[in-house]
Automatic annotation (TrEMBL):
Gene Ontology terms: cellular component: membrane
Localisation per UniProt entry: Membrane
Membrane topology label: Multi-pass membrane protein
Lineage, broadest ranks: Eukaryota, Fungi, Dikarya, Ascomycota, Pezizomycotina
This protein's name: EamA domain-containing protein
Keywords associated with the record: Membrane, Transmembrane, Transmembrane helix
């Protein structure tokens, strides 16, 4: 007799026909009696385990989306702080170049320390054969950032945010001209719709005339007030819709979106040959150097110190929020699919409207809202367009607040 052999397809059984008396007796034994409530405790533990499993699955599935949402929140906070500092009636008005210098200096320092700590390959200058493209990426990114911050001096946050969604349209055109990528009819239609939206936001005098500007009654409106060194500071007043400053701000904002699209097209050429943080650091470093030099040589500009705790706090918020925007957006888009992440960036428009209402107590005019809806709808429609099924798979690209808007173009040309 041997044990552990197979008899009739059964293991470890002895006796004729594989009969096992121990197994038979165990089957004949009465079921075990559990204490009262033991079954309920087991069921409850299983339910808790199931809930925890679903919660963990939900967390893992949407963590990247949460990072992108957090990045957009920090971006809105940063834009709000920048608008408060560049307001005409602030105790010490900052220029857009001052904001860029402070924000990008903080980003460059924190980014350099992070890459040094993580021992990023080719730190800090990147591959030598990529130097020219990295400089072009940083320079065009600086111009795009200047267009955004200058427009915040005269435009509502919601208007400036809406115009920034022109970037996907510009990128499609640049990739067609520069990289010979396909430029489909959907992209051209999206561009025309966005152009109409920009005109509704800008409301130039040669199209809409000079409307009568009504001054809001601050005595009967609920607005947030700020105390600076014991004095009462009212919310900044934005120029009238037809003012030359507003028109110039819209032009600078449009040129800024074109420069941001140029930066993204350069990033597409660089591809994965350079670490994403090195690309971001070129952007931050060149923006810091360029803004600092312009402040030094411009006769009407000089380096100024903040006045009061509020301005110091706003500068600190800009520096920290700018770095967190870059970092969280990069981490989020590395974990999340391009379509879901890109659509989450449109939430910044909602945040801009909420911030305007809470801090300034204002609501954009109907034409501005219609123009914003047109621009965002065109961008969303463009992001939902699918590329050809036989093209190569999507590839990841370095991202920042300019390129976060470009998932639509990236999926069409990379997908």
């Amino acid at each position: 007799m041997s044990y552990g052999t197979q008899t009739g397809g059964r293991e470890g059984l002895s006796g004729p026909e594989g009969h096992n008396p121990v197994a038979s007796s165990s089957r004949m034994a009465p079921p075990a009696v559990h204490p009262d409530g033991a079954d309920d405790e087991v069921t409850s533990a299983q339910e808790r385990g199931s809930y925890m499993g679903h919660a963990r699955e939900f967390y893992e599935r949407n963590f990247g989306l949460f990072l992108v949402f957090s990045a957009q929140t920090f971006g809105s906070v940063m834009n709000t702080a920048a608008k408060l500092l560049t307001a005409k009636d602030s105790p010490n008005q900052f220029h857009a170049l001052h904001i860029i210098f402070v924000r990008m200096l903080a980003t460059a320092i924190l980014g350099t320390l992070y890459m040094w700590y993580k021992n990023v390959p080719n730190f800090p200058m990147g591959p030598r054969n990529m130097f020219g493209l990295l400089v072009m990426r940083g320079t065009s990114g600086f111009v795009g950032l200047f267009g955004l911050y200058y427009s915040l001096s005269y435009l509502e946050i919601s208007d400036a945010t809406a115009i920034s969604f022109l970037v996907p349209t510009w990128t499609g055109f640049l990739c067609y001209v520069w990289l010979h990528e396909p430029y489909r009819i959907q992209e051209a239609v999206s561009g025309l719709i966005s152009l109409v939206g920009v005109l509704l936001i800008a409301r130039p005098a040669f199209l809409f005339g000079n409307p009568t500007v009504s001054v809001p009654d601050l005595d009967n409106s609920t607005v947030t007030m700020f105390i600076v060194d014991g004095s009462l500071e009212k919310p900044p007043v934005v120029g009238s819709p037809s003012s030359p400053q507003r028109t110039l701000a819209v032009i600078c904002s449009i040129l800024g979106t074109f420069a941001a699209a140029t930066a993204y097209s350069t990033i597409r050429i660089i591809g994965k040959r350079v670490h994403s943080l090195i690309s971001v650091n070129y952007f931050a470093g060149l923006s810091t150097i360029a803004s600092g030099l312009i402040i030094l040589v411009h006769p009407d500009l000089e380096f100024i110190l903040p006045k009061g705790s509020l301005q110091w706090s706003l500068l600190l918020i800009i520096g920290i929020s700018g770095f967190l925007l870059q970092f969280l957006l990069t981490e989020g888009l590395q974990r999340e699919k391009g379509g879901r992440a890109t659509n989450m960036t449109y939430f910044q428009m909602v945040l801009a409207l909420i911030i305007e209402r809470v801090i300034w107590g204002t609501t954009p005019p109907v034409l501005s809202l219609v123009g914003s809806v047109l621009i965002i709808s065109a961008a969303i429609w463009l992001s939902l367009q699918k590329g050809k099924p036989n093209e190569a798979k999507e590839r990841a690209a370095p991202v920042d607040e300019e390129t976060s808007l470009l998932g639509a173009r990236g999926r069409q040309s990379d997908a």
